[in-house]
Amino acid sequence: MAVLRLYRDKLKQNYNHINQVFQDEGIDWGVVTKLLCGNELFLKEVLDLGVVEVHDSRVSNLKTIKEMAPDVQTVYIKPAPKKSISDIIQYADVSFQTELDIIRLLSEEAVRQRKLHKIIIMIEMGDLREGVMGDELLNFYEKVFELPGISVIGLGANFNCLYGVMPTQDKLIQLCLYKQIIDAKFNKNIPWISGGTSVTIPLLFHHELPKGVNHFRIGEALFFGLNLFTGETFEGMHDDVFELETEIIELTEKPMLPNGMLAENPSGHSFEIDESLYGKKSHRAILDVGLLDINPKFLLPKDESLSVVGASSDMLVVELGENKQHCKVGDVLKFNLRYMGALSVMNSKYIVKEVVSF
């Protein structure tokens, strides 16, 4: 059975590194845990780091977090569905919002539950996912800030989530200007400009982050140490907090090309024949994971001599060449994961989850 391992010490080193950077800059931040899909074993490791704020996109996960750590500030990080209003007020201390009608419902529910619900108004900054359009922001805020049970604690923006639009100094200065305009017009002081996600960290390191940006939401950099501008690992951080271990369930020397009339496979893929491979053979291993668990493009073999050929629903095929590793049935092959790969594996009930140290 395949196993996903979380290395506790590597996670702690990544957390301490990021936390020190933000402390030095006077920046507040929260850990984005949506990757963990509510897994209590892994959530405990995150909470044990001493985090004070946790972000997630599923109310059920925030409920779990509140039950495990009642004093941690929970943040719901997408616009609220109407059917989830009551639970969001109950389990999320803060939420990201973009729709006036939804905020009114949150206000009514917060009054019913005798709570003050904090919101961060998300602003559209070019990536065309969630966000209020900039030219509508003043009118939007005017209708929100006097609602009972609601406190606007921040303005925020997302980057690189849909079209890959990257944060720049100019875009973040624009975000800061929105806050300054609102503060001046309404005689308010919105505490946070939440312009920071993992993709924004390089701007901080290159001293290009506007001083007004004082809040970050970090997931990918924490779990993968990844610089999303360069694709490299940040110095002093680990890219292998997670490791997927799979078992070889068949290993046979086979032709490198299929034999027969070709059509689309069940995944909708059509294959072209590379005639240079006619007559050649290779050792192929079948592993005990498949598309139900992960898209192969998000797998990074620890043994760089092997290559992933493809996958069906429950089996993954890798090529071992001449099998100089002397692998055999029952042996295990290990993989590092990209973010979306880890997300899939975490969401698979067929993969065992374990916590280990170095």
UniProtKB/TrEMBL annotation:
EC number, UniProt record: 5.1.1.1
Top-level taxon of origin: Bacteria
Residues annotated as domain Alanine racemase N-terminal: 9-225
Record Pfam families: Ala_racemase_N
Single annotated GO MF: alanine racemase activity
Entry-linked InterPro entries: Ala_racemase, Ala_racemase_N, PLP-binding_barrel
Claim: Isomerase is one of the keywords in the record: yes
Keyword Isomerase in annotation: yes
Cofactor or coenzyme needed: pyridoxal 5'-phosphate
Gene3D superfamilies linked to this entry: Alanine racemase
Name listed for the protein in its UniProt record: Alanine racemase
Keywords in alphabetical order: Isomerase, Pyridoxal phosphate
